[in-house]
Specification:
196 residues, alpha+beta, globular, homodimer
């Protein structure tokens, strides 16, 4: 039996959580990155296809490899984040279905179907990116997701020799709340949803 | 200052949460659907573009409209769920950016750029679909997300006259844990992530 989580949890996950652009000078331990992945990988994907691939860019050297591919507005803040995660998705995900979905031949649902492969990888890899954001917040860190970068450049630098493509980036760390802008407006329920 | 959420919360959101296919006969109040959207809409999207549109299919009449478009394996279980949510994404999302991202002319970033519109709508609409899943679990309900349906048929039936396209479906309610299969295997950290 599950119940509504305490308001303090809902605040941390949703209501008080914000996209951060400035970071306190506190390192993020590798163990915490493992804990984030351990939670995020449990979120649902279709046929458990799990196409997301995560690269946690943490060392100075790796950040320098990422830097030239960031849009100018994202460059400085990303260099100052303790970690920037590259969320990618693997077009070869279906090769792993005999392991991930062993009770049927799910691999054959995709073989040779390029459009279905691309759509499934993008949809489910993006879902897993959102699970990563929620897991990060659940473990007490802040996120700064962003789309402004040269995807092809990041792919060449970090995913060469694979069929993985970059999806979006997400900085992780302890955000500086003093640097936040007010939250942007949201739709009302009726503007984005209906009950029929 | 945020901290790691209590283990009971992490269990409910990730570790014990499962994709449900069988549902207890308990209605879901409209107020709870509003509460889910109120949380999910707070999750981050690029430039706050918020392209997701949610239709909560709850009445018998609406379920009958959905039924012929479901794959056979999804049909009966979906008819028995208290609510099935159609998660769609609006290709006209950028028309709303003067409201949602008022401090700059973000609308002009998209006008006339069909490929960028489609990719941004799909990526961010999918992120919001994942936020809906997490918000639903956070409020004590279970989810049953699925991709097996005729997207074009659902679009004709539920999104006619708009530029909204269906993305995936997600049943909501109180799941019957007795009907769950064991969780499918996941990757190890090293198979899906690395720290550089």
């Amino acid at each position: 039996m599950t119940v509504k989580l305490p308001d303090a949890c809902l605040d941390q996950l949703f209501r008080e959580a914000r996209t951060h652009n400035a970071w306190r000078d506190e390192a993020v331990a590798d163990e915490l990155l493992h804990a984030i992945v351990d939670l995020a990988m449990l979120g649902p994907t279709s046929a458990n296809c799990s196409p997301a691939r995560f690269i946690f860019v943490k060392s100075h050297e790796a950040k320098e490899r990422l830097k030239p591919h960031l849009s100018e507005g994202n460059r400085d803040k990303t260099m100052k984040a303790p970690v920037c995660t590259i969320i990618g998705y693997d077009f070869d995900f279906y090769q792993h279905l005999p392991k991930l979905f062993p009770h049927t031949d799910a691999k054959s649902w995709f073989e040779g179907k390029e459009e279905k492969i691309a759509e499934t990888a993008f949809r489910n890899g993006t879902l897993q990116g959102a699970y990563l954001i929620m897991a990060t917040r659940a473990l007490g860190l802040d996120c700064g997701p962003m789309s402004g970068f040269d995807n092809a450049g990041v792919d060449r630098e970090f995913f060469a020799g694979t069929n993985v493509k970059s999806n979006f980036l997400c900085s992780l760390g302890h955000g500086d709340r003093a640097a936040l802008f007010p939250r942007s407006p949201r739709f009302s329920f009726d503007e984005m949803a209906r009950i029929v």
